[in-house]
Amino acid sequence: MNDSDEGAGRPAPDGPAAPSRRKDARRNKAALLDAAAAAFVVSGVDAPVRDIAARAGVGVGTIYRHFPTRADLIVAVYRHQVDACAEAGPALLADSASPHTALGRWIDQFVDFLATKHGLAAALHSDDAGFDTLHAYFIDRLVPVCAQLLEAAAVAGEIRPDIDAYELMRGVGNLCIGADSDPRYDPRRLVGLLVAGLRRP
């Protein structure tokens, strides 16, 4: 194949098909991150790359092309899950019967995120510099969403108005500690009682 043939029949990088290609690439990367997250639930953050590739239906090389190191993959999965949780808040508020219902459903998703990141907490406390900003990202993305849900429920008269979003999230997080190592403990039940207790008498 000569140089004149190599680009024949294909649109220029910024041609009409470029936005579609970028959208496909984002969708493929999201699917890969979902597969990695699912593998982490089963095997922790040390899940074999070949298992993640098999879940995603791609070759191992594709994962390394996107994420050259395991730390890169862990960071990307964490940020992807935080983003999904953040984006769920406004969607639940729009789709739920009441703001309190939306808050409860969002807290359930938050608990799922906390309870299924096997090994991630230990990784985040390692010496890898790539993890340094993740806690701040978590706070910056999720606290405002929780605050929005709390405010909507308070304005609707469903809950008391003096509940702090960070304080609530910290309490929920504390209820999730150790859940992955004790099959007899389901934090969702206690968190559900906590959310129910936010209601006005």
What does this structure look like?
The protein is an all-alpha fold and 201 residues long. The protein has two domains: 16-68, Arc Repressor Mutant, subunit A; 75-201, Tetracycline Repressor, domain 2 (Orthogonal Bundle). Helices cover 68% and strands 0% of the residues. The chain starts with a helix and ends in a 5-residue tail after the last helix. Residues 1-10 have low confidence and may be disordered. Residues 9-19 have a biased composition (Low complexity). Residues 1-26 are annotated as: Disordered. Residues 26-85 form the HTH tetR-type domain.
Summarize the structure.
The chain folds into 2 domains: 16-68, Arc Repressor Mutant, subunit A; 75-201, Tetracycline Repressor, domain 2 (Orthogonal Bundle), CATH 1.10.357.10. Helices cover 68% and strands 0% of the residues. It has helices spanning 3-6, 18-43, 49-56, 60-66, 70-95, 99-115, 120-124, 134-155, 165-176, 187-196.
Task: Please count the beta strands (DSSP E, at least 2 residues each).
Answer: 0
By CATH, the superfamily of the largest domain comes out as Tetracycline Repressor, domain 2
Percent of residues in β-strands: under 5%
CATH architectural designation of the largest domain: Orthogonal Bundle
Protein structure class: mainly alpha
Properties at a glance:
single chain; 201 residues; mainly alpha; Arc Repressor Mutant, subunit A; Tetracycline Repressor, domain 2; 2 domains; disordered N terminus; Tet_transcr_reg_TetR-rel_C_sf; HTH-type_TetR-like_transc_reg; DNA-binding; Homeodomain-like_sf; HTH tetR-type domain-containing protein
